[in-house]
Specification:
Length: 197
Amino acid sequence: MYWATRALTCWYFSYWGDVPNSDTLEIYIRQRTIIFAFPTNHGLFAIFIAWPIEEFHAVRSDIEGRFMAALDCVPGLTERVRSGRRAERFYGTADLPNYFRRPYGSGWALVGDAGCHKDPYLALGVCDALQDAEFLADAVDKGLSGKSSLDEALSDYERRRNEATLPEYEQNLQLARFRPLPAGFMQLRVALRGPPN
């Protein structure tokens, strides 16, 4: 592993039933938490909340209390959730190290979180996996077609993955430290997302 950083956050989540919800991912950033809320299978509503890693033991000692207190910081969301019922137990972890790993060897290759694990703060895992799979497919094609040696092609895969992922990795680390967001950060993200279709 390289470019490793210890875990910066702890996360807890559960599912609620009978919650009026939208069809989109909702993200709420508060002073010392980030909340993801979204509809999922069987009419359930998933809620994931992160706190700084330093708060892990306090959160773990009163998961439901801390979870609901975080939701109470988002008035529209807390009313919807409290009108429903929790359908699952709480799940959580503080085991979220950040690192890059050499993504290939003799007869194997890694994509996504297996090769570069990031804190879930920006929810980049699936996007990384798809991007890496494309880079890996290109490398395997070059190596097996004779355009280059397989070792050279896989080394190039690692380089491409690192170049594409490192800026988001570093940004994600900064955000997961719960430092104040840069001026205009949220406005830029909203503008990039564009109007709903």
